[in-house]
Inverse folding.
């Protein structure tokens, strides 16, 4: 298959799909119309689908000839962000019609690319062997993520997968390029939300109260030097508090305080060590202050690690089909986090970065910001690059001795 030519012929398809999804964003766990649209599109191509409760949509393409099975994934949820009608330099070509909700991370592009790839693969079944599983994943951003029900469905229904593929559009990578990294592609993340219970009182008599605010100050102080004491300077680790909520009047000591945040790491052992330390420090400090602890959220998502043999093949396939200029060999790893890390810990695979930066279009604002936008010509390259790899991996069926699967259930329990 000439992947560049096939993608160019479907340029209008990927752009129109992206604009539809961008104009109709839905929040995590509320992507009902989005999934209806995905299923309708796939059914019109004759592609069988399954909707997994609280998980998302699967599509299944069978070439009719035996071979490997590759899983291709896109996430589908949007964010609670009010979109700026102007990107970095001009009015947008399309804007959210759901006020206060925006595809500010690029999942509209992910869905558009995967549906376009599904169309091309379906129309060219005679040019490849094996099967393709399409995974449209709910709630990648927040809440009760869809990844656990989706992977458990595959396991429980004995659906075999040999390798997996995913991509994320990237705000600072030029449109027309893809980044394919060896080793760590994206960071691991620990999400925490903890409530401290104390005893309320009057500000004039703190001795008669148990202040959760003073308790939190001690916890934050204890953690302040954590990175210097625990993490090697050659590794990347960071944490931050994103929310602290307690009280509302200056002379009333509140009964409760809620704090929340995230930690990011390039090694799973660093992230899990911080999780253990945070919970221990919080429990012990709370006991000293006379407070009790309620852990509301405690989720760890592992580092996204590409399989060496898959990267070897992916880089070669992209260069062969699209030319050396399409591959950014020096693209750095990204400190953001992906639930695809769990999929890629289950099967050998590769996770691309798809470039969407173009100053003439006005794209280039970081993800999760009101001015974030996509240079749509980058999506055409993304489609061609994905097809280049998928058709190559189905043909080559590479041995992957560097890959070592992680127990799925043990990993999923960290996310729940």
């Amino acid at each position: 298959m000439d992947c560049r030519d096939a993608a160019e012929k479907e340029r209008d398809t990927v752009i129109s799909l992206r604009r539809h999804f961008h104009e109709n964003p839905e929040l995590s766990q509320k992507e009902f119309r989005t999934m209806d649209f995905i299923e309708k599109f796939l059914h019109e191509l004759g592609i069988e689908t399954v909707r997994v409760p609280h998980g998302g949509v699967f599509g299944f393409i069978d070439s009719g000839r035996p071979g490997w099975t590759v899983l291709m994934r896109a996430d589908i949820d949007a964010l609670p962000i009010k979109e700026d009608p102007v990107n970095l330099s001009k009015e947008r070509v399309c804007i959210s019609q759901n006020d206060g909700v925006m595809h500010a991370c690029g999942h509209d592009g992910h869905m558009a690319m995967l549906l376009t790839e599904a169309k091309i693969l379906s129309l060219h079944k005679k040019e490849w062997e094996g099967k393709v599983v399409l995974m449209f994943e709910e709630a990648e951003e927040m809440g009760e993520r869809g990844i656990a029900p989706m992977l458990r469905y595959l396991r429980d229904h004995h659906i075999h997968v040999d390798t997996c593929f995913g991509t994320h559009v990237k705000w600072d990578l030029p449109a027309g390029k893809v980044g394919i990294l060896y080793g760590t592609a994206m960071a691991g993340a620990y999400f925490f939300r903890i409530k401290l219970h104390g005893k309320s009182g009057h500000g004039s008599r703190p001795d008669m109260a148990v202040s959760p605010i003073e308790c939190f100050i001690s916890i934050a102080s204890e953690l302040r030097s954590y990175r210097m004491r625990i993490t090697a300077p050659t590794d990347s680790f960071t944490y931050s508090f994103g929310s602290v909520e307690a009280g509302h009047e200056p002379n009333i000591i509140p009964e409760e305080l809620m704090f929340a945040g995230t930690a990011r790491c390039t090694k799973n052992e660093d992230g899990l060590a911080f999780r253990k330390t945070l919970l221990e420090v919080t429990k012990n400090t709370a006991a000293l202050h006379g407070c009790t602890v309620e852990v509301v959220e405690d989720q760890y998502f592992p580092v996204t690690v590409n399989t060496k043999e898959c990267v070897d093949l992916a880089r070669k396939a992209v260069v062969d089909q699209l030319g050396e200029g399409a591959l950014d060999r020096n693209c750095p790893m990204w400190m953001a986090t992906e639930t695809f890390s769990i999929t890629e810990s289950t099967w050998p695979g590769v996770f691309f970065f798809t470039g969407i930066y173009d100053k003439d279009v006005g794209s280039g604002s970081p993800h999760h910001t009101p001015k974030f936008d996509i240079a749509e010509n980058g999506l055409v390259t993304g489609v061609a690059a994905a097809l280049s790899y998928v058709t190559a991996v189905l043909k080559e069926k590479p041995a992957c001795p560097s890959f070592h699967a992680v127990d799925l259930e043990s990993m999923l329990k960290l996310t729940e």
In short: The first helix runs from residue 3 to 9. The chain has two domains: 3-185+302-413, 199-290. Residues 70 and 163 are 5 Å apart (CA to CA).
